[in-house]
Amino acid sequence: MAKRRFMGTGLPYVDLSEVNGHLLVVEGSDGVGRTTQLSLLRTWLEVQGYGVIETGWTRSALVRESIDLAKAGNALNLLTFNLLYATDFADRLEHEIIPALRSGFVVLADRYVYTAFARALARGTDPEWIRRLYGIAIEPDLVVYLRVDVNTLIHRVLLADSLDHWEAGLDQYPQLDPYESFIKYQSDVIREFDKMSDEYGFTVIDARKKVDEIQRELRAAISATLSQSAGADVVAPTVDE
Fold this sequence. Notes:
This protein is of the alpha/beta class. It contains 8 helices and 5 strands; from the N terminus they run βαβααβααβααβα. The chain has a single domain (16-227), classed as Rossmann fold (3-Layer(aba) Sandwich).
């Protein structure tokens, strides 16, 4: 395994030499199918003998309810928006991610700091500030980006539910109707993800493919990552296995 690093200044009380598990991240816009894919991945990895935990955006017991309440009013300012999500991440990092990695678990992350970066930058946040804010993050072993174009994305979102105020970016484009705002905002988010894909070396998978095809590609990418670790011997099975 390559030497593990923080993405910024890090946490002074955490010795990364003791963090021996694997941090695997699945990123992508709302509606790309992350939840389905992560559920399949967890089962597959557990069959292979790995201990697995999942962590995801706004699942912190500390601030989950506060975020829901704050967003319900549709009146969050940008600073509060960013700080609430950073608090959620910091709490999960300290109480879920780091302990699991120390215990040798595979951590499957449904989104990571890259979602915070994409959303913040699409809203005009200073890039240097937002990256310093998340400098406590541990660099993942693998980031898979489920990429989809905005037209496919809105079709999926409309089939699943009505447009959410924040998902549609109406805080940024209140003068637009929800459909137009969604197109503009999500296009901005996808553009930021695409930039980070080059910068951070994401593994990109076309999220327009069938579920089983995406799952095979995810397993292949994870197998390659785990196989680089000493003693790991993982072969990606077919979806039916």
